[in-house]
Amino acid sequence: MPRFQGLVTSKLPAVGTTIFSVMSKLAMENNAINLSQGFPDFNCSEKLVELVNQNMKKGNNQYAPMPGVPALREQIAEMIQDLYGTQYNPDTEITVTAGATQAIYTAIAAVVREGDEVIVFEPAYDCYTPAIIVAGGKPVYVQLSQPDFSIDWLAVKKVMSHRTKLIIINTPHNPSGTILSDKDMQELDKLTKDTDIMILSDEVYEHMVFDNGIHQSVARFPNLADRSFLISSFGKTVHTTGWKMAYVAAPENLMTEFRKVHQYLVFSCNTPIQYALAEYMKDKNNYLELKSFYQQKRDQFIKLISSSKFSFEQSTGTYFQLLNYSAISDEKDTDFAIRLTKEFKIASIPLSVFYHENVDNRLLRFCFAKKEETLEKAAEILCKIS
Ligand code: PMP
Ligand code: GLN
Q1: What is the pLDDT of residue 219?
Q2: CA 329–ligand 1 middle distance (angstroms)
């Protein structure tokens, strides 16, 4: 008998526990190598930890200003301008958030109303749809083309209507490990020009682009930047997913609405960490070297698994590598991922969970943000699976 006897009508009837929690728990229970949920198994820099400690000892332990510590907002504005050329005013156009998840939720809550449509590309990171639905909006899905996960812009044009309020893009893309091109951004520009459509650009993996590829931030395209919420996450950039620190940059009129929701959702974020990041990010190497750091890991991982029965296209961005297992099994990807965790002691994420209709292309996602020895052990297992 439930303790609450009233009627509870779920606002999110289709939502269960996220796949990241499910697979990480299964990995732990089975003592499996966990390449499922995306997080590093190595520590962040000691210098950064020291800076946080110093700020705590200094007494920077009370509420930060609602939009974030000014020094950090200034540093973020400088990084964006340096890398992509667009100027954001740190006072009015940048807000520090408790992770990118909060930033995404807040942006959607701030602009999406009952009946508004939001274009979402699938496979899609799993926090977009629930936020749209809670806001009363309707996700309109466009599937990325197979096997390269490219965007069919004609298909996008077909689903656009006067009800389209927002388009969500994500580059580098989780879960596919692909990136958008300059041409993609131009297509997006063409399609949205002369409309009221806004863009949410999830760029949390902005510093992880490989093989001399270029990260196509909306901030490289003035017309796109003018209608976009640009979101990035320190969790990825400085190897601190557990700190839940991220930021949003957007034109003032969008940011004003964003902050109205932000101030009542979290008000402000962790103070000592903001001071520490403001100092730490002054050294450009702390984010610029991420590219080669993760490219090395990707290269190591794919070299080690090259003799396995999995097939793959090299990831061009993020810290994820997709592997196709159709030469090994015709099991459903969810079943196969569970069996690999229990029998072979290696956990991954099945791709079908990122589609509302559970499209299954026999693909699993593996996170290579791991120590050399973890990747070696994982590859040894993967090579034995046949
Ligand atoms: N967007 C994407 C594409 C992600 O992969 C993640 C999680 N890693 C997030 C947003 C959320 O980031 P955060 O941990 O900063 O909330
Ligand atoms: N973004 C991480 C991933 O894709 C997981 C984040 C989470 O657990 N919510 O694996």
Answers
A1: 98
A2: 31
